[in-house]
Amino acid sequence: MSNTDSGTSGLNNYLQKQNRIDAVSWVESNTGPPNKPTWTMTCKVDGKVCGTGTGLQKHVAKDVAADQALASLKGQ
After folding, report:
1. Domain DRBM, which positions (predicted)?
2. What is the total count of domains within the chain?
3. Residues 6+ apart with CB under 8 A from 39
């Protein structure tokens, strides 16, 4: 998969093609010590949770959540 087909970019591209880019929102949280937090990102589309990702870096967690959301929206 190319970088434009997955993660946050893939989700944004998919929603832009449907004129629904404003439908996406993100909820972030972290646990653990301040110097090494574990991030959890939740992706919502039209207010519905479509994906959740966890990682040691915020962008990794966001990409995992975006991949899940994209698969959910495409019915995979």
Report:
1. 6-75
2. 1
3. 28, 29, 30, 54, 55, 56, 57, 58, 60, 61
- In Å, what is the CA distance from 28 to each residue of 1, 3, 35, 44, 56? 26, 22, 17, 11, 13
Q: 21 near 9, Cβ under 8 Å?
A: no
Q: Are 65 and 52 in contact (CB under 8 A)?
A: yes
| 70 pLDDT higher than 70 | yes
Phi, psi of 38 (to 5 degrees): -105, 125
pLDDT at residue 1 tops 60: no
User: Helix (H, G, I), strand (E, B), or coil: what is residue 63?
Assistant: helix
* Residue where the block lists tokens 């591209």: 13
The percent helix, strand, coil of the chain (3-state, each to 5) is 40, 30, 30
